[in-house]
Amino acid sequence: MKKSKREEVLKLLETDRDRSNASVAREAGCVSSYVHKLRKQVRSRAEIHRQDEWIKSLLLDPWFDGDIYDLTQVAKKVGCSYRHVEEIYAELKAAQERRESTAQATSVSVPATGLSAEVKRSYVETNDLPPAPVEVVTRSSILSTARSYITRDRQADHGDAEDNFSRIAGYWSLHTGVTLTATDVAVMMALLKVARIKQNPQHVDNWVDGAGYFACGGEIANK
C-alpha cells in the first residue's frame, strides 16, 4: 500500500513540481510530511542527473584524452568522486565500442586515399611518421586524426601555429593589398579544403585538414 502511495506522490510531483505539499497529500491520500520527504528525494535525483549529464558532456569532448589526470580534473570540476567519474567513463566507453562495432558491420569501409601533397611533403622533410590513414570514417575518427595532426610536437620545425599563420597573413596582405590576419589564414586554408571537398568529397584527408585548420583558427582567435 505504501509503495503505491509513493508512486502516486512521485507521479504528482513530477507532473507539477511547484504544487504544494498539502495539495499533493490531499490527492494522494497521505500526510504533507511524507510528500515533503519524497520531494527532497526527487530534487536529489534531479541534481544527480544534472551532474551526470555535465560529467558526460565533459567526457564526450573530442579533445578529452581519457587518462587518469583528465578523469581527476573532471571530478574536481564537477565536484564529485573520481570513482563516480570513472564509472560513467566506463559506461560511455562501452557504449562507444558497441557503436563502433555496429558501424564496422554496417558502414562502408573507405580505402585510404593518402595524405594531401603538402602534408605528405611536410612529413617527408621532417623525417616524421604521419598518423595512420582513416579507414572507417566516423565523426570521431575524423576529429581524432585531425587532433593527431595539429598536436604533434613539431614547433621546432614549423614554429608556433599563430606565428606561422601571422607570417603567411603578412605575405598574403602584401600580395593582395588587403590586410589579413592569422585567423583569416586559418579560415582561407579551411576554405581551400572545402573547395577540394567539392571536387572529391570521398577524400577523407580534406575533411581532416579542414577540421584541423578550424581548430587552430579557433585557438588563435580566442588567445
Structural features, described:
- The structure is a single chain.
- This protein has 223 residues and is an all-alpha fold.
- The chain folds into 2 domains: 2-106, no CATH class; 117-221, no CATH class.
- 73% of the residues lie in helices and 0% in strands.
- It contains 11 helices and no strands.
- Helix 1 packs across helix 3, helix 9 packs across helix 10 and helix 10 runs antiparallel to helix 11.
- The chain is elongated.
- The N and C termini lie far apart (62 Å).
- The model is unreliable at 108-114 and 153-157 (pLDDT under 50).
Q: How many angstroms does the end-to-end distance come to?
A: 62 Å
Radius of gyration: 26 Å
Number of separate strands:
0
Q: Helix count, per DSSP?
A: 11
Counting helices, strands and paired strands, the structural category is mainly alpha
Major sheet, described briefly?
none
Share of β-strand residues: under 5%
Estimate the helix proportion, in percent: over 70%
Please provide the ordered H/E string of secondary-structure elements: HHHHHHHHHHH
Total discrete domains: 2
On the 0-100 scale, what is the average pLDDT? 76
- Outline: elongated
Unreliable spans: 108-114, 153-157
Helix-strand layout with pairing:
Blueprint: H1 2-15, H2 21-28, H3 32-59, H4 68-78, H5 82-106, H6 117-125, H7 139-150, H8 155-158, H9 161-176, H10 182-199, H11 204-221
Helix pairs in contact: 1-3, 2-3, 3-4, 3-5, 4-5, 7-11, 9-10, 10-11
Give the structure's gist in a few sentences.
By secondary structure, the chain is mostly helical. The chain is 73% helix and 0% strand. It folds into two domains: 2-106, no CATH class; 117-221, no CATH class.
